[in-house]
Fold this sequence. Notes:
Layout: E1 4-6, E2 19-22, E3 26-27, H1 30-40, H2 45-48, H3 50-54, H4 65-70, H5 72-79, E4 80-82, E5 87-98, E6 107-120, E7 123-134, E8 140-151
Pfam families: MaoC_dehydratas
Protein name: Putative enoyl-CoA hydratase 1
Family: Belongs to the enoyl-CoA hydratase/isomerase family.
Amino acid sequence: xxxxxxxxxxxxxxxxxxxxxxxxxxxxxxxxxxxxxxxxxxxxxxxxxxxxxxxxxxxxxxxxxxxxxxxxxxxxxxxxxxxxxxxxxxxxxxxxxxxxxxxxxxxxxxxxxxxxxxxxxxxxxxxxxxxxxxxxxxxxxxxxxxxxxxxx
Length: 152
């Protein structure tokens, strides 16, 4: 794991183009996939029916793409630390691709590069290119351009 720490949101302004680091590894379990299916109402068999999924295109169940995407804020919080801010908020996404499916039990990690940072009223808005990759192979699972705001 490797992270970047800035004392305040304005510290991001000098880091545009910088590799911010890499998170620790995380594993999505079948139980988490099932709970996500319950929350979203997406109970498609490729996510929740292990017996049927074993004969399916991936040979196992897979996490919902949006569950994989939901890992990004936590991964980014490990990678980028803003020490003194009143709050941070997710502001949106500019681009997301689910490059490869995420089977349960497979460790993933995140990495991020700061693409943009600009002052806004009360803080800084930033965009990071975040990659979720399989920890053992470095193969990309998901990529996202994530917009977030830190307020002073």
